[in-house]
Amino acid sequence: MNQADVSKLVSKLRIKVPPKHRKLSSPQGPEGRLNKLRKTVTGLIKYERIELNYRRADEARQYAERLISEAITNGDCHKPTMEIADYWLLEKQLVHKLFKVLAPRYENFNTAFTKMYKAPQAYYGRHIDKAVLELRGNPYPALTNKQSNNRLLLQNVLLDAAKYDYRQAKYAEMAEKLGKIEEVSSGLKKEHQNKPTNESQ
Prior knowledge:
By secondary structure, the chain is mostly helical. Helices cover 55% and strands 8% of the residues.
């Protein structure tokens, strides 16, 4: 069987997959690693947005993408796909959600089904890279602001108010300087008018 036939049998993932799997530390060894990933995939399907360590999120994302891709391609009548779903989803009511909610949602998607963001670092404790892993089309508010120039954001409102106060103070300062200049010039004009002219010269 050549490469073209294999690509027809296995759907292509829309995310970058490293050639080697990550070594997630676990006292139970490889079985504990798989249990961690199964819990992560189950949590992602259940809550649709989770926060966890970056390495674990990046590894579990591949399995979630494959699971959703197989559910879309084969449906719930395909026995191997049902076995895969039964293995990866620890809560069995989520199998129904996978085939009846998520598969129709992502049926016409051209991009990846999941999205991953780097989470901000905590200023205390150990330095551990955190990430937010979510399913696209989830019911939660977006984590990124699509409108970068939104004037109604709190920081932009405060900056506009500060600019307005600064300009008003500058205008008052300029008006005060202009008033003093006018006083000086009017005083000089009066002195010039009152000064007697020397016609003898």
